[in-house]
Structure prediction request, 899 residues.
Amino acid sequence: MTRQAFVESRGFPLDDFQLRALDALDAGRSVLVAAPTGSGKTVVAEYAVEKALAEGRKVFYTTPLKALSNQKYGDLVRAHGAGRVGLLTGDNAVNGEAPVVVMTTEVLRNMIYAASPTLEGLRYVVLDEVHYLQNPYRGAVWEEVIIHLAPEVDLVCLSATVSNAEEFADWIQTVRGETEAIIEERRPVRLRHLYLVGDKESEDVHLLPTFVEAEAPDGSLELRPNPEASRLDSRSSRRGGPAVRGRPRGRLYTPRRVETVERLDDEAMLPAIYFIFSRAGCDQAVDACLAAGLGLTDPEERAQIRAIAEAHVKTLSDADLDLLGYGQWVSGLEAGFAAHHAGMVPPMKEAVEEAFAAGLVKVVFATETLSLGINMPARTVVIEKLSKFTGERHEFLTPGEYTQLTGRAGRRGIDDLGYAAVLWNPYVPFDQVASLASTRSYALQSSFRPTYNMAANLVRRYPPEVAHHLLNLSFAQYGADKEIVRLERQLERSRELLASHRRGAECERGDVEEYRGLLRNRAERRQAARGGAAGGAGGAAGFDALKPGDVIARRGNKAVVLQRTKGRGDEPKLLVLTADRGVMRLGPTDFAGPVRAIGSIELPRPFAPRSPAFRRAVAEALRAVRVRPEDGRGSGNGAARRRGGRGDDGEFAGEARHHLVAGCPDLANHLRYAERAERLARDVERLERRIRGRTESLARQFDRVLRVLEAWDYVDGWALTDAGAMLTRLYSETDLLLAESLREGLLDGLDAPSMAAVCSAFSYETRGPDQGATTRVRFPNRTVRDRLAEIDRIWRDLNVVEDEAGLPETRRPDPGFSPVAHAWAAGKDLEDVLFDEDLTGGDFVRNVKQLIDLLRQVGDVAPVPATASAARSAAGALFRGVVAASSTVGSGASSVPAG
Prediction:
């Protein structure tokens, strides 16, 4: 499909920002498209798909969530046919070698680390919701993908509007090459901010504009906070009576949910998404609307809603539906109300999404999880409170969170105006509400940090200097020190030039560097003869030019300089290490003449000459240094010096004349390239020193991670042990703890239900303050209890090592899900499994799916075949009933149109 045909196929004229993004892709550049929700960013991604197909290449479309991947898979199948589109998530693997594959971002990261052949022919990668890289738990994956993807792959990054989009695009360009930032701040539908106030002296809820037009000093009109709302708010405070239980009394109150819905209906402001930062609050809001007798649908709409609901839950048994409260849920749905939160099972959430997108359900009471990705635009967004509970404390919404929530207000092509309504609250003055609504700063921040798995994969794939180089290319490092990333890019170019010039200096007749060495030695000996340099004085003079890492020759043996020091009477000394790992101090009298470097190596960090691991690494690097024949005889050979300057010059001149390279017709070019390569090598060394001097916390943290891995025998020098190789394939927040538990045999000898129970401690995390508590857990059997106690012991040991290394502590294994996992893997019914458990259906499904993913990893890497088999059996036993129904390809691939 040509570009013109693509544009015409959209059915509507493209906006300027969309056309500019298409221009960038046509010019072979990566793009970052930062635009408000619903503005049509996905058009750019769809064009990349069309271009890849037209070129006979591949395109990967990545999203942060399985539900989003499923939805996008459905959209692309409808556009291109099932034969050309694949899906790869933790739940599904469908047509993975198709030219268009939708996947979660972690799947792509794992492919890159595994050097999967599926990457061959890849032309574009779409990173949808790329601002997710600031997520503290998973955000680093986006940076890993951007850094490690092959350079010929162009990126299409789709982001919410962020205030530092140019900086983010500049970083991508620094790392990957030409990248264009396409920024669109205008919303596709104008947004009006409203303030809803309950007033005991008024029959109706006040619906006030947050901002009104006022004349600016220059005579123009500008938006200012509504003085009427401010006066009403302050008047309530003055007229308030005594506080009751800390709550101020007054004429104003927070509008109740039912009356808010009624007022929005009266004002023709539905459909609405009503954000309540509590799952229970969302469910209670639906119940309150039903109890009040509200109904927002007609008979035809109710029939359509019933059909959608039944289609989504058809794979669930009647018993499961009863347990999940299907009757009350579908009653609310038919009346035009629904909840949407993580406590619901996916088939029910997806039915809500489809019915709302079709305009059948008029009000959805949702937690903030709805603000990410799922395509559910509304005419109005209501925010009940401007603070939310994070699990530890209440925090005020940030401008970025407010922008994300209100981004769904206004349906493109349907509404001329969208509404964002905030409810009055006695603890939040109106001025604070207006300030939040008017703030546009939402800076994207990195959450990148080296993990044990990441470190092991870097060791497996790259030499040390490249691994540190890649860490310094991260957006986190870019934010901490932009200069480092620029220096790293400069270093990369200098290394490429150096390699090119070294190739130009190569001669098929012989070693050009050897020939240059002869010429250099002749010049040095002439200088020494003229200057009368001899004995120890010459050696002392040479000491000043040496630096740590320089390789020298003494009596035909190599040594590497560790430090320049001073002895008695300020006599210069060299601390050196020999190829047999011996450390000694040498003075000028230990050399027959001037000392010079015959090569150099990079010393390991931290500098620890007493450490056996340090000495071993240095000795291995030293042995790899090639010594030219004239260097091997030692610095300042005494016999040659005694023969005198001219005879010596004649000898070396003769050697140079008869060298194989001397007769090469391109000798002048070879020497010119070699001279430039020598200068470039010095430039590279200088850049490396500057980078080492400026590197901030990331590289140091990486080195601390490596020290922990070396102490626990996952890394030996710069090589992985068998345990380290296993660690590279474990992608878990508790990766090293899981690997060590496997090594110690704590997963061996378990049946499938017990395997599921024990492994759940690595993937499950209790919500709220009871995280990691073990005293109230009803362990399914003694074996599970004992194994989890041993794993907890390893965790304590690991935390001690992490604390000593200054690393963030690995979270404690949480046994809270073990009885549930054991019962479900053992084949018990959902009702029996959840009986007496404070666990919703949605939480149950999500945690089981995460456990299945982890068990499959264990099945792939466990060194004991029986253990691997038990893990795979446990994963299979868990994948049934409501879990399997929530994992089908159709689950999430609804008919919601792309926006």
User: Anything to note?
Assistant: The longest strand covers residues 190-199. The chain is about 50% helix and 15% strand. The CA atoms of residues 490 and 687 lie 8 Å apart.
